[in-house]
Write a structure and sequence with these properties.
The complex is a heterodimer of chains A (about 400) and B (about 300).
Chain A (H helix, E strand, L loop, with lengths): L1 H30 L3 E7 L10 H16 L3 E3 L2 E3 L1 E7 L4 H13 L5 E2 L5 H14 L3 E2 L16 E2 L6 H14 L4 E7 L2 H16 L3 E8 L7 H10 L3 E5 L2 H14 L5 E4 L7 H6 L1 H4 L2 E4 L11 H12 L7 H19 L3 H10 L1 E4 L2 E6 L2 E2 L6 E5 L2 E6 L15
Parallel strand pairs in A: 1-4, 1-5, 6-7, 8-9, 8-10, 10-11, 11-12
Antiparallel strand pairs in A: 2-3, 12-16, 13-14, 14-15, 16-17
Chain B lengths: L1 H5 L2 H27 L6 H19 L3 H29 L6 H27 L12 E4 L2 E4 H23 L1 H11 L1 H6 L4 H26 L7 H15 L4 H21 L5 H15 L6 H6 L1
Antiparallel strand pairs in B: 1-2
Helix pairs in contact in B: 2-6, 2-7, 2-9, 2-10, 2-11, 3-4, 3-5, 3-9, 3-10, 4-9, 6-7, 6-9, 7-9, 10-11, 11-12
The chains are: A alpha/beta (about 400), B mainly alpha (about 300).
């Protein structure tokens, strides 16, 4: 009997709650409709562990925009609501999702998914429905083959430019010989293909050049070879998973090369936690952002990210995601939701972002320089190029 | 090149890799051996063990060394729970004519459990990469340098494997387990409590998987989706060593470690998968019942 009474009471309570929720929803809808922004993200599957730094940045942005009354849509402020789908780490799934977001969910705006193959995959859909999207976490020379129009790529970390800039930096540090270890996944393989000819051109001796698969579990054999070669610089063209393996085994074998470049991974907060702060110190990696007084909002972004998530943003992916949001926000404030006008603005205006000025020519950001950062006393500092540097390169002292 | 091969550094790597594979394969083998159930969620138990150690370390500051027995015990408890709640009933209904069906059903069931575990962990803990730095100091013995955590993994994984092998060959409960593995019907006729043996297999199988997870978490980073490669490695080992043959599995795991380390050193890291699966296929063609099968049969 008692059980029955409780159950009845809870049923009444839930009906009341539902009615309230419905009523308030109705009132809300009448006052002003929230702005619905859609995107897909790899929440499950092989790439899911790479996406949180981007998704976190989106969430942080939504929270801040709503806290200041909403996103400025051509003069009226509207609260932001996300429509998120899991693309299961499959680009073809992302294609279907973006099509659904546009035609079925009828979202007001779109944000970019994670990663190069996903950006390339959705480009034709955006073209078909004439729906502009500011890309962020995509970097490949293949992006230049994407038809310019409705998607733009914010990063300057394109492999051919990494090849020339990295060589210039090595040259400046008086590096005479290098060892190149490369993961065979597309981005690092592309870097290898561009950096090696540049090194040869610059007269830098490539003493070791080897590749490895993404599922590698032990690098002892390759690293013993690197140690014996006694080179000035090691270019570990690694992905996040193997960047940690490299650092741990470099420590075990005592690789004491003063220039240690690790391509992807160290820009994310997990890296120093995984290898220890002392091991991370001195590692050079790819990123073109760091909090800098000259870049308005960069320190505020860093502080609010750390406050909300308790760890540093990814200096590459989080910064890129935030830049893309800033660009979209500016274009929407100016044009409202008129897709053609938004497109024209993004394609032609110069934008102020936390990474300085951004301007697109075709699909590419032509202002932000290709840059490298280094861990110095637990913080990432831009050490190349000098025009935006926040610190000077320091030779790595052991692991 | 020759001095690299003879340096002992590669041998150390091969032993670390091999001992971890051996520990992973051990549990898989016991569960398959005693019940003919293919636990494709085994790698996900390794992943859960890794999370156990990670949270204990980063939230409570508990050293993974202390957490190891606790996590292993929790793994064993989960194993017993699953056995009681899900598999005992299934196994009780098995007759020799439906044994094949059980193998298929268990495969599907564990596959479902695997997907559930991965996604629940991804939802609960986010799919972030996790890792922590523990026992990172490097020791040098002769010309071999060893990171303390890798040395620890070798000792613990190797020690537990040897202990379980001894348990199976010396202890009466271990002998009962082997009896069930080798002659299930006969074992129950001579009075072996098959239900208890099965429960024990689940406990040891799940416990060692969780322990392997704790050890793995000291060496590499992991995410909710890190378990699957361990399932695959475990299957290669137990098929090489002979399904249900625990000693064979231990040797096969070391062999796999050697192939992976020395094979890569002699050829190219890009050939890692070719070497692993290639030797697996060759072994299946030449020794279809596992490397040690003949010796066991003639004994």
């Amino acid at each position: 009997m008692k059980l029955m009474a409780t159950r009845r009471r809870s049923v009444v309570a839930s009906i009341a709650a539902a009615a309230l929720a419905w009523g308030s929803g109705l009132a809300y809808a009448q006052a002003d409709k929230p702005l619905r922004i859609g995107f897909s993200m790899a929440r499950t599957g092989m790439l899911a562990n790479a996406t949180p730094s981007q998704l976190n940045t989106y969430e942080l942005w939504r929270e801040q925009v709503n806290a200041r009354g909403g996103m400025d849509v051509g003069g009226t402020k509207r609260k932001v609501e996300f429509v998120i789908y899991d693309d299961q780490s499959k680009p073809e799934q992302a294609v279907r999702i973006y099509e659904k977001l546009i035609t079925d969910d009828k979202v007001d705006l779109l944000l970019a998914p994670w990663g190069t193959p996903f950006h390339i995959a959705i480009a034709p859909v955006l073209e078909k429905y004439k729906f502009p999207v500011v890309g962020n976490t995509a970097a490949s020379v293949a992006l230049r083959q994407v038809k310019p129009g409705y998607i733009w790529f914010t990063t300057s970390a394109i492999p051919d430019r990494i090849g020339t800039e990295l060589t210039a930096m090595l040259k400046q540090q008086n590096v005479k010989s290098v060892a190149v270890l490369s993961n065979v996944l597309p981005f690092t393989k592309e870097i290898k293909n561009f950096v090696e000819p540049e090194l040869k051109k610059a007269g830098i001796d490539i003493k070791v050049s080897t590749e490895y698969p993404p599922d590698i579990k032990d690098m002892t054999a390759a690293l013993t070879q690197v140690k014996q070669a006694n080179v000035d610089a090691v270019l570990a063209l690694a992905y996040p998973g193997d960047s940690v393996l490299y650092a741990k085994q470099a420590k075990e074998l005592g690789l004491n090369n003063p220039f240690q470049f690790v391509a992807i991974g160290p820009s994310d907060a997990f890296f120093p936690k995984a290898v220890g702060a002392a091991s991370a110190d001195g590692v050079v990696t790819i990123a073109h952002w760091s909090p800098r007084p000259e870049w308005k909002g960069s320190q505020a972004f860093y502080d609010s990210y750390v406050k909300k998530f308790g760890e540093d943003p990814d200096y590459l992916n989080s910064a890129l995601a935030w830049m893309s949001l800033e660009i979209l926000e500016t274009a929407v404030a100016k044009n409202g939701l008129d897709k053609e006008k938004i497109r024209a603005t993004i394609a032609s205006d110069t934008f102020e972002t936390i990474n300085g000025k951004v301007k697109f020519e075709g699909v590419q950001n032509v202002v932000t320089p290709t840059a490298f950062v280094q861990y110095q006393k637990g913080k990432l500092q831009i050490v190349w190029p000098a025009s935006i540097a926040t610190g000077k390169f320091e030779p790595k002292k052991g692991w | 090149m020759i001095d690299t091969l003879l340096s002992g550094q590669l041998l150390f790597s091969a032993l670390v890799t091999g001992s971890l594979y051996a520990l992973v394969a051990l549990g898989l083998n016991l569960v398959y051996g005693t019940m003919r159930m293919l636990n494709v969620a085994h790698g996900d138990l390794v992943m859960l063990g890794a999370y156990g150690a990670f949270w204990a370390f980063s939230l409570a500051g508990v050293s993974p060394l202390l957490a190891a027995p606790l996590v292993a015990a929790a793994g064993a408890a989960v194993g017993i729970g699953l056995y009681r709640g899900l598999f005992r009933g299934m196994l009780a209904k098995v007759t020799p004519s439906t044994a094949g069906k059980l193998e298929g059903n268990s495969l599907l069931l564990f596959f479902g459990l695997s997907i559930l575990m991965q996604n629940i962990v991804a939802l609960a803990f986010t799919p972030n990469n996790r890792a922590y730095a523990y026992l990172g100091e490097v020791y040098r013995i002769g010309n071999v340098s060893m990171t303390a955590n890798r040395l620890l993994v070798l000792c613990v994984a190797g020690g537990v494997c040897v202990a379980v092998a001894l348990f199976l060959s010396r202890h009466v409960a271990g002998l009962a387990m082997r009896a069930v593995i080798e002659r299930r019907e006969a074992a129950s006729i001579v009075g072996v409590d098959v239900d208890r043996v099965q429960r024990l297999s689940f406990a040891v199988g799940f416990g060692t998987a969780a322990l392997a997870g704790v050890l793995m978490s000291m060496l590499e980073q992991f995410s909710p989706f890190s378990g699957f490669p361990f399932t695959i490695a475990g299957f290669i080992v137990i098929i090489l060593g002979g399904l249900g043959n625990v000693t064979g599995g231990l040797l096969a795991a070391l062999l796999l470690g050697v192939i992976e380390t020395y094979g890569v050193a002699l050829t190219s890291a890009n050939l890692r998968s070719v070497l692993l699966y290639g030797s697996f296929v060759v072994a299946l063609l030449v020794f279809p019942n596992g490397l040690l099968a003949r010796r066991l049969v003639t004994r």
